[in-house]
Amino acid sequence: MSTLKDKVILITGASSGFGAATAKSFAREGCKIVLAARRLDRLQEMANEVRGLGGDALPVAMDVTQPAQINELVKSAVDKYGRIDILFNNAGFGRLDWFEALDPIKDIQAQIAVDLLGVIWTSRAVLPQMYRQGSGHIINMCSISGWAAPPLYTVYSAAKFGVRGFTEALRREALPFGVRVSAVYPGGAATEFQKHIGQNKAKQHFRTPAWLALTAEDVARAVVNLAKRPRRSLILPWMMVVSLLINSHFIGLSDSLQARAVAPYHKEDIKKYL
């Protein structure tokens, strides 16, 4: 679609990071935006910003790990605007640490619930409305680690690999009914996400170089462009394609380099768990 004016956009995880930046970008296009996240105070602030940029907004406090709340979110969106044109499944978080250091509930279960099940449940709730319309676009926030899984990303990558597989299967199911399904695969970015990944020394040492790191605004522009010109997937920045090719075609070399890079840190920390 060449214009997004008056399109209804539902964004999860809209209170900060990629979600907040994307909401502002859609607002500049004149969209009607349903802002969903857990922090109502921040959502209300975002709604005011969206309106100030030329869009309309409906803030809804909800938790993507609760299917009943997701259903109420979708109902509120349809009651208010009559349709949902684009779903941006953006809610997510990461806990990056040695696998044995992750808490089974707070780190493992919670990541799977938010990063994978939240995407699946929200898509399932929205899809019938899009089928009734005969049109729609679901955009799932994934990650480069959904293609290539580095050390410390065991559970996060498991969730993102799941999102990639879910996106591919749903894309093929929904296409005959006028609904597009896409995934965005960003590399490292300077967002609030980085504040919650944990304090593992290895991760703190091996950061994405500044020249390669994305901003929330970079991703927001890409998502809006994807909404205008749908495609199956989008890797950001494009240079990350090189690392994915190395990972897929020279897997032994990739294993060796990454294992050696983190081994000294792991050997130091693993003593606490033996």
Describe the protein in words:
Helices cover 50% and strands 14% of the residues. The chain is built from 9 helices and 7 strands. The chain has helices at 17-28, 40-52, 67-81, 104-133, 154-174, 201-205, 216-228, 240-249, 251-269; strands spanning 8-12, 32-37, 56-61, 86-89, 136-141, 179-186, 233-236. Helix 1 runs parallel beside helix 2 and helix 3 (67-81) packs parallel to helix 4 (104-133). The longest helix is centred in the middle third of the chain and has 30 residues, at 104-133. The mean pLDDT is 94.
State mean pLDDT (0 to 100 scale): 94
Question: Which H/E pattern describes the elements?
Answer: EHEHEHEHEHEHHEHH
Major β-sheet profile: 7 strands, parallel
Mass-distribution shape? globular
Tally the helices. Answer: 9
Distance between the termini: 57 Å
- Approximately what portion of the residues adopt beta-strand conformation? 5-15%
Number of separate strands: 7
Widest β-sheet, arrangement of strands: 3-2-1-4-5-6-7
Low-confidence stretches: none
Please compute the radius of gyration using only Cα atoms: 19 Å
As a percent range, the share of helical residues equals: 40-55%
Helix and strand composition category = alpha/beta
